Amino acid sequence: MGRPKKLDNLLEVVSEHVESGDYLLTTHAQQRGAQRAITRPEVEFVLTHGWHEKRKDRFDETYQAWNYAVRGKTVADERELRIIVTFDDDMLVVTVIDLN
């Protein structure tokens, strides 16, 4: 079985999931967010206003799914964040990274 095709319209799909509340933060993403003082509203803002950082996308062999990178700045303090998402039945936020 080959790799599934990558989403061509990632940012559109991500925005739809965020706007409908149809996504989950993994335990790992929640822990990293707490450690890095990244709030859920900041994650949502970057996911809906950021850009697809295609060169950071990775295929996860274990789960047979693409992990996509979305990058952007927070509003209040303009921190540069990278948010990693994947899809199964829902959208999952895998981790949150502060690039500053």
TrEMBL record:
Source domain of life: Bacteria
Family matches, as InterPro entries: DUF4258 (IPR025354)
Pfam families per record: DUF4258
This protein's name: DUF4258 domain-containing protein
Species for this entry: Persicimonas caeni
